[in-house]
Amino acid sequence: MSKGSWYELARMDTGKKNAFLGKLSKRLVESSDYILKENLKDLKSGKEKGLSNALLDRLKLDEDRIRGMAKGLNDIVALPDPVGKIDGMKRMPNGLLVGKMRTPIGSILIIYEARPNVTVDAFALCFKSGNSTILKGGSEAINSNRSLIKVIRDTLEECDIDPDVVQFIDTADRSVLNDLLRMDRYIDLVIPRGGEGLIRFVAENSTMPVIKHYKGVCHVYVDANSDLENALEIAINAKVQRPGVCNAMETLLVNRSIADRFLKMLKEGMDKHDVRLKGCEKTVKVLSGIERAVEDDWYTEYLDLILSVKVVEDIGEAIAHINKYGSHHSDAIVTNDYNNAMRFIQEVDSAAVYANASTRFTDGGEFGLGAEIGISTDKIHARGPMGLEELTSIKWIVFGSGQTR
Amino acid sequence: MSKGSWYELARMDTGKKNAFLGKLSKRLVESSDYILKENLKDLKSGKEKGLSNALLDRLKLDEDRIRGMAKGLNDIVALPDPVGKIDGMKRMPNGLLVGKMRTPIGSILIIYEARPNVTVDAFALCFKSGNSTILKGGSEAINSNRSLIKVIRDTLEECDIDPDVVQFIDTADRSVLNDLLRMDRYIDLVIPRGGEGLIRFVAENSTMPVIKHYKGVCHVYVDANSDLENALEIAINAKVQRPGVCNAMETLLVNRSIADRFLKMLKEGMDKHDVRLKGCEKTVKVLSGIERAVEDDWYTEYLDLILSVKVVEDIGEAIAHINKYGSHHSDAIVTNDYNNAMRFIQEVDSAAVYANASTRFTDGGEFGLGAEIGISTDKIHARGPMGLEELTSIKWIVFGSGQTR
């Protein structure tokens, strides 16, 4: 990629970027036949290779899913452009005006698995925030991705934008990743989206900064003084509304003083949703017949209708458990005690910490970011949902009148 | 390091942190004899090993330098504590209150060369922002560093703070670095302070995020419509006030239309400060007798009284030159043309971009950050001067009233 095409994009005005994204939304729908034909090739070879049904479902596109991508683009049009926003401009004693202006980062490598929708979605977020995008999708989706990239590049040309602002690594050869991950002269940031193995591989081998999206071992702690009906509602929502995602609850902690009563309510409630409970020693004494949790379970992201349950002495033990066994993703307390709510918010070391709400809200849309490219479990650059602003950097801008030091 | 000692520090109130830093400032001065005795050992073995005078000077401590460190600590006491600051708190349509709270990052590894003052300075900035510090200093300073760490740890104990919030890698063996750089389970961030070789080694071998402080190939561009007297003043300041630092100017660009007049003024001005000029083809036609710059010179950080000089057609060529040959550190335009000033600020891709001021202002103190741990040339997490806030992360905090999704 030439730096020239990035500089053009970096300073492109919002109107031109939005006009392109709007046109792309249309062109995607108009190109449905072509895209679906290419997608069929991937589905066919995926079936031949014996991919699981879950994987084939992620791979599959249809008219509805293409309309979903097109709608996603229009949503991104509606978001404010982060580029050029100036923060904290102040006048220094020597008369210099000093502030920070948001700028694009440069060129962002997105490495993902067999979800063709990521191709459009990730590109559009990077584009709106003024970044060049290099896309390396899963080999199972190569025909689908190639067709989507063709539509994107054709539309860029139609809008008089250098199509090289998006690059597609058009090979199913995984070894190319090793070379890509050492191209720090050309790539500013890597965002791997996929399983833990992929992310770990990228983090260990990249010479560029990597923003990681690891697993979510999320907790709900039900405090002594709490509304047990509401606690149950939050627990059920956090566990069953969408168990396969990173912000779903994996472990419930309950204060000893209300454990007898709440655990029975919990069992009854979770039974209705076929959630299998695994309890600590104290839990199994109250709920005889449920499985005993082992040490490893406290670290486990089930992504399934399974829940670890532990009775704790007090809020201190709850916080210590979460900071030790959790993955620092999303954790909630249910309490009517003001001081305990504030203490939990302060002391739990997670990307999102809740008082009296479900962990399921950890999401760019729910936090007011509009869209998200992922949920960072890192502490560097971005933490929690990453929206457009998290895809930018800053530069210091200084207006002087001849000052020297 | 136990996570426990970090959690204690992460939630320590500002008063206790400041009381400790103030006491440390006193204890350092009181321990001068001990510290200077240990420093003498390093100086002696440094001389035996044949270290250069410049290196020995950096290594050397005296009463004045110890008082300087002590004063630095009091300056850090006076800075606002970034931890716990809440940004952008808003009420979402479902009633959730969502905001971002600044939190410490965790544990920060500082790798540095033979400057013992970094031991105190870097530790104090990390401590005030709630982070544990792991210090790996240059082997030449090991006795000095060991004595400073002893004073720090003794004062921590005196103030009832777990001394393990600071760890000193007490070995002169450089191979230990390879192990340290793979300890991503225990270390959250690495900041190497030193030469380009060290930084590159750390960036390539660390499995943790690294914030890099590379060289500064900084420019001043003198535009067609500009006050030439002021342009000369800025150029001289940027070059000679402290030529050995990263924000000093290395290349001057001058608009063709004023080149004849300005280059003669420049030669006369720079001659007074013994600055050697290297010019492009057009420059040497005006200033006969000066050296001809070669391609490599445009990329070079001299850190010395040498200056590359180039005549450019217009502001477009100046910006293109800076973005191609510069190191994206600090660059300035001198102009009376409003539109050119605004264009330069927008289009130059550097950590600090100036209109009508010297590049020498790129500094935490000058930008109002109080102190700095360095000047990041990265675009991820921090760019430009890094103060206390740049040593923190955030967490999303959510106050609900029973919301589920």
Overview of this protein structure:
2 copies of one chain form a homodimer. Chain A is α/β, with parallel strands linked by helices and 405 residues long. Chain A has 2 domains: 226 residues, Aldehyde Dehydrogenase, Chain A, domain 1 (3-Layer(aba) Sandwich); 144 residues, Aldehyde Dehydrogenase, Chain A, domain 2. Chain A has 14 helices and 16 strands. In chain A, the strands form 4 sheets. A 7-stranded parallel sheet of chain A has the order 10-9-11-8-7-12-13, with helices on both faces. In chain A, strands 5-4-3-6 form a 4-stranded parallel sheet, with helices on both faces. Chain A has a 3-stranded antiparallel sheet with strand order 1-2-16, with no helix packed on it. In chain A, strand 4, helix 7 and strand 5 form a beta-alpha-beta unit. In chain A, helix 2 packs antiparallel against helix 5, helix 2 packs across helix 7 and helix 10 packs across helix 11. The mean pLDDT of chain A is 95. Chains A and B meet through helix 1, strand 2, helix 10, helix 14 and strand 13 of A and helix 1, strand 2, helix 10, helix 14 and strand 13 of B.
